[in-house]
């Protein structure tokens, strides 16, 4: 099964949460923060503006992005967990 997002929706896979702090303290499961960096798996075609023109997507498949802390719809597909978010919920593209 595959998911093809519609309009300005983006399918992302969250990265793993940090297991230790920068100072080396190991975090318990409840103390870990929800990760905010994700990989873009699939994107919709874009959203139509009030004049009926298609506004293309800014992000593309393979981008690493910074997302809002809470939001989106969690989806489980073939044993993998993904999140479906609006492009408005993506705050930045992360580069190395």
List the helices and strands and how they pair.
Blueprint: E1 9-14, E2 37-43, E3 47-48, E4 54-55, E5 64-67, E6 73-77, E7 80-86, E8 90-94
Antiparallel strand pairs: 1-2, 1-7, 2-5, 3-4, 5-8, 6-7
According to CATH, what is the topology?
Answer: 10 Kd Chaperonin, Protein Cpn10, Chain O
Rg calc: 15 Å
Structural class: mainly beta
CATH superfamily: GroES chaperonin
How many domains, in number, for the residues? 1
Percent range for β-strand residues: 35-45%
Summary of the model, kept short:
The chain is mainly beta.
Description:
With about 100 residues, the protein is mainly beta. It has one domain: 10 Kd Chaperonin, Protein Cpn10, Chain O, CATH 2.30.33.40. It is about 0% helix and about 40% strand. It contains no helices and eight strands. The strands form two sheets. It has a six-stranded antiparallel beta sheet, with no helix packed on it. The chain has a two-stranded antiparallel ribbon with strand order 3-4. The chain is globular and about 55 Å long. The mean pLDDT is about 85.
